[in-house]
């Protein structure tokens, strides 16, 4: 189906678009601030709408409340103008049950969109989300987790309380939004992990002391730890990469430790690549994957999904380094030398043919793919 996705450049929007690209054949029409005025035309030609655009923070409470109401009003008018049944999914929030500016604004927007949808014979699904976290969230805007990560990396201690909090990873939220496209219910409420704010701070500190700067992988024995670690390491990329690996040399040669892991699964492999050949050209939704060139010369290239810019790391077995691929970034490795390239790969989980978490995509796509 053809799906209009509002807020496509936002935190949850990027994760939802990423998951739709990886796991479905749907055509996604991204709506951002730049093409917001085209919303009526885009909705008129769509089968479904996932509405994620919103205002989380602003200078005043009125700006937060009215900003969300205005966005909801625009969407409702576009649905009414289409004058035909549509499947509409909206990212709601547990804040609608509380008397604050964000909750009031989202509640009013939800009512307007639901009324317009049902009046035209469509189906409206409210996805009520708890606190979200994940890769590429913004500090002091999307999530306190992002604020904690920034503080940890920059070396300061933010205000920390000992409140209990329910946390849901953005990829899990995205999956519920996608599931809502086929749901026969009018409201979905996914459940996150119940933890403490101070516990989250302690985990991020644990990750940082283990991982930076030597690249030691922390204990990844639970899904929550993997999700939180992926969120942390996304904020290190690319400024704090590659990870320098230390050779221990003597008259016999050199020994280089490429991976240290404190817990969880893990799988190592290696490849040989002849000159001029490229491997990879894919991305992952959750997998932690490390590249370490052991012999030869190579270029490791990465591109964040739905963006143009390509990052290149020129690496050599003579100066061993490791690069851990961030979630949602397409990556490859090319033999740029004259001899055979030997590369070691490590993943935090065992390879499962039925669920490889590997999705084909070129690092250098055709220019027209970025016309949206």
Task: Give the SSE layout.
Elements: E1 2-6, H1 11-23, E2 27-31, H2 39-44, E3 48-51, H3 61-82, E4 87-93, H4 101-119, E5 123-129, E6 131-133, H5 144-154, E7 164-169, H6 170-179, E8 187-188, E9 193-196, H7 197-211, H8 223-234, E10 243-244, E11 247-250, E12 253-256, E13 267-273, E14 278-283, E15 289-295, E16 297-304, E17 311-316, E18 321-325, E19 329-335, E20 341-347, E21 359-360
Parallel strand pairs: 1-2, 1-3, 3-4, 4-5, 5-8, 6-7
Antiparallel strand pairs: 7-9, 10-18, 11-12, 13-20, 14-19, 14-21, 15-18, 15-20, 16-17, 16-19
Helix pairs in contact: 1-6, 3-4, 5-7, 7-8
How does this model look, in words?
By secondary structure, this protein is of the alpha/beta class. It folds into two domains: 2-137 and 163-194, NAD(P)-binding Rossmann-like Domain (Rossmann fold, 3-Layer(aba) Sandwich); 243-370, Jelly Rolls, CATH 2.60.120.10. It has eight helices and 21 strands. It has helices spanning 11-23, 39-44, 61-82, 101-119, 144-154, 170-179, 197-211, 223-234, and strands at 2-6, 27-31, 48-51, 87-93, 123-129, 131-133, 164-169, 187-188, 193-196, 243-244, 247-250, 253-256, 267-273, 278-283, 289-295, 297-304, 311-316, 321-325, 329-335, 341-347, 359-360. The strands form five sheets. The protein has a six-stranded parallel sheet with strand order 2-1-3-4-5-8, with helices on both faces. Helix 3 (61-82) links the parallel strand 3 (48-51) and strand 4 (87-93). The mean pLDDT is 95.
């Amino acid at each position: 189906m053809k799906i209009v996705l509002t807020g496509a450049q936002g935190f949850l929007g990027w994760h939802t678009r990423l998951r739709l690209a990886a796991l479905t054949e749907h055509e996604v029409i991204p709506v951002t601030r730049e093409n917001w005025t085209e919303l009526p035309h885009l909705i008129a030609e769509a089968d479904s709408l996932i509405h994620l655009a919103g205002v989380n923070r602003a200078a005043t409470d009125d700006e937060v409340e009215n900003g969300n109401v205005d966005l909801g009003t625009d969407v409702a008018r576009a649905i009414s103008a289409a004058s035909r049944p549509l499947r509409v999914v909206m990212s709601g929030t547990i804040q609608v049950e509380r008397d604050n500016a964000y909750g009031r604004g989202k509640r009013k927007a939800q009512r307007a969109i639901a009324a317009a949808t049902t009046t035209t014979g469509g189906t409206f699904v409210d996805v009520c989300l708890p606190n979200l976290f994940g890769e590429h969230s913004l500090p002091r805007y999307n999530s306190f987790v992002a604020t904690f990560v920034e503080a940890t990396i920059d070396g300061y201690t933010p205000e920390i309380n000992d409140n209990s909090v329910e946390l849901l990873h953005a990829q899990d939220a995205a999956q519920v939004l996608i599931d809502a496209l086929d749901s026969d219910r009018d409201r979905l409420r996914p459940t996150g992990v119940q933890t403490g704010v101070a516990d989250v701070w302690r985990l991020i500190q644990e990750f940082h002391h283990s991982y930076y700067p030597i690249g030691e992988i922390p204990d990844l024995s639970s899904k929550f730890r993997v999700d939180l670690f992926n969120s942390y390491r996304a904020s290190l990329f690319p400024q704090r990469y590659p990870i320098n690996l230390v050779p221990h040399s003597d008259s016999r040669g050199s020994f280089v430790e490429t991976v240290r892991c404190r817990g969880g699964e893990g799988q190592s492999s290696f490849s040989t690549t002849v000159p001029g050949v490229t491997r990879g050209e894919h991305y992952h939704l959750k997998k932690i994957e490390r590249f370490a060139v052991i012999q030869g010369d190579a270029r490791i290239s990465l591109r964040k999904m739905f963006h143009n810019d390509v990052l290149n790391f020129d690496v050599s077995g003579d100066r061993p380094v490791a690069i851990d691929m961030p979630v949602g970034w397409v990556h490859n490795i090319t033999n740029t030398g004259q001899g055979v390239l030997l590369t070691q790969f490590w993943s935090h989980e065992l390879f499962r043919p039925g669920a490889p978490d590997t999705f084909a995509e070129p690092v250098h796509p055709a220019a027209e793919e970025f016309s949206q």
